[in-house]
Amino acid sequence: MKNYQGIAPEAKIIALRVLDNEGKGTTAKLIEAINWVYTNRTRYNIRVVNLSLGTPAIESYTTDPLCVAVRRLTAAGIVVVAAGNNGKDAAGNKIYGAIHSPGNDPTAITVGATNTFGTDSREDDRIATFSSRGPTRSFKTVGGVKKYDHLIKPDLVAPGNKIVAARSKDNFLARGNPQLELTGEGDSDDYQLIRLSGTSMATPVVAGTVALMLQANPKLTPNMVKMILQYTAQPLAGFNHLEQGAGQLNVEGAIRLAKLVRQDLTVSPALGAPLLTGLILPRHTSTVGGTTFQWSGGITAGFGLLSGTKLITEYQKVYAAGMIISDGVIISDGMIISDGILQSDNVFDASSPMIAGDPQQ
């Protein structure tokens, strides 16, 4: 597939199957796979997990078994990426509050999808109509009253419309939709391609970027990774934070900033310790596909937004593994302070059905 190359072509991939030939499965199977990753993380040096699937987020992320399993991974230093495809109803009307689990968990990197309209330029990029919008509507009941999580999601967006990818042998989607197939290199099943849409396609674009970031700087924690991805993202005009989070993925900026983060920080750096290797701030613009744009310069944090250069120049306590950025206390100078440690060792199984998001054209 010489004409098509993924974001991190040299990355080693471990594929854990949790869905059947029609893209259906159970939460219990997914949690079993996540637990396998946790157990074998050191043996295989697993640093990032792509979860291009989801189930309706009903129970609050604080107790949702799938979210609890995801937080266990992020607490162990593994970056988790999740998604969702419920941005519109049957009539094509825009829907808010349809983020899937585990994308409703604050520690997951939740990825929405953009439509690039097949051009290299980013000037015409828009949020895909199917991409799930926030806020999260998972809830817990206290005294007979529903208490909604209402977190800002997604965290960022990435290209997810008509993306060319490798087609598996005897692919179920290709059999039913031959118009999606592309001609690969020769007649071998090993080199066939398919064009699909969905946040399930956008999510691995971010996962591949994370792999490159960790290659450039293996010392990054999951929260540092999320901060960098959001801080360097490209805000898309005409779309709010519940549609795009911090903005569209900026691979160039994310890797450039990742390289500047110190790799000699202690296990527990002091709040406000210098975060970058030099005193000169990185250029807050990137040029991709002929389009020059300003970085977002901020991050989403639970119910609000944070911005300012102190996010990248000074170490924040919530950058430690096992912390939740949205639990931090926001003060006027843009710093985040929090010393609470997230405990997430209790994992439960569930049997609610889970269906992968249907690709959109």
- What would you call the structural class? alpha+beta
| Residue share in β-strands | 15-25%
Sheet with the most strands?
5 strands, mixed
What would CATH call the homologous superfamily? Answer: Peptidase S8/S53 domain
H and E order: EHEEHEEEEEEEEHEEHHHHEEEEHEEE
Walk me through the structure.
The chain has about 350 residues and is an alpha+beta fold. Strands 2, 4, 6, 7 and 10 form a 5-stranded mixed sheet that branches. A 3-stranded antiparallel sheet has the order 11-13-12, with no helix packed on it. Helix 4 runs parallel beside helix 7 (about 250-260). The longest helix is centred in the middle third of the chain and has 18 residues, at about 200-215. It has a single domain (about 1-160, about 195-360), classed as 3-Layer(aba) Sandwich (Rossmann fold), CATH 3.40.50.200. A hairpin with a 2-residue loop joins strand 14 and strand 15 (about 290-295). It starts with about 25 loop residues before the first strand and ends in a 6-residue tail after the last strand. The chain has helices spanning about 25-40, 65-75, 170-175, 200-215, 220-230, 240-245, 250-260, 310-315, and strands at about 25, 50, 55, 80, 100, 110-115, 125, 140, 145-150, 155-160, 165, 180, 195, 285-290, 290-295, 300, 305, 330, 335, 355. Residues about 330-360 have low confidence and may be disordered.
